[in-house]
Amino acid sequence: MIRSIQLPFYAKLCFILVSLICFGYIFCAGKDIITPVLMAFLFSVLLLPIFTFLHHKLKFPRHIAAACCILLFAACIVGILVFISYQVSYIANDFDTIKKNANTFIIEIHKFIKDSFHVSIGEQKKYLSNVTIDTVKNGNASASIGSVIISISDLLLDCTIIPIYTFLFLLYKDHFILFLAKLIAKKNHLILKNILSQIRASIKNYIMGLILEMIVVSILTGLGLFIIGVKYFILLGLITGILNMIPYIGILIAGIITLLASLSGTPEISAVLGILIVNLIVQLIDNNLIVPLIINSKVEINAFVSIIGIIVGGAAAGIYGMFLAIPLLAIIKIIFDRIESLEAWGYLMGNHMPRKFIWRVKRVKTEN
Q: Which end of the chain, C or N, has fewer beta carbons within 10 A?
């Protein structure tokens, strides 16, 4: 354990809170720079075994080994995108059918609202038209288009810079480790080695768990859609599995895409209900079986801290922040567990289920 200066509890708490505020402010202010670096760090940890095999076993030079890892990773991503685009081309052929069924489905919704809430179809269309006009007048439409363009440009920039950062992390791995070793005393080098090895194992297990979760969710969703007779069930299952890696938002986007694709076959509401039931069942299985067994067991973070971390990460850095929340919490917990003054906070973040705690208080005898 790393020994620290003994300070009063209120002083320790102040230092911890000030440090958290400073780190939070730095992350929010520089999220556009920090998030690609953190994403590249996660990918480099995932590719590290391949890099080690190529460099140490096959005697590849460091530059070539790192480049091969990046090319292999890029090939996997491109392969998935090519498969998705190949399948999407079939959906594009059914665009006219989807448009026709979508109009039929909207008419059915209008009729349902009319019968249930006694609002005429003309009034519904008038209300939607007014909302659209107000949106255009307020400039929200142009602002939304501008934000979309900016988001696409940021995505393209990240797709370029993240592989470069990943390559550099693999190339200068030993350089960064030596830098950390120079920051602390030699007597604590063993602790640093244990922290780094545990961080590497935790992140690698978490990412592998995410990939396994993606595969299981894709298979379950595709199987469910096949049973209820939805076309393109393989593509929709794969999209659901990939988007499920994005907490909260991903499954909603996947559900909307599945509903739109289902209109290529039939506009009936029963098909929509079937898709909703399939997604609900898959999410119940995912949240109650897959996530506790595969994800939470890898990072040892309890659900309460995970949810708060995902919400805070999403508020600070959007989708990137939500994706990075769990591995960052895992790293923080590993560091806290190795520092005596912060060990209690590491225990708070863990998923330990202790037995009933019994207070052991010594009674002080008073003289009459």
A: C
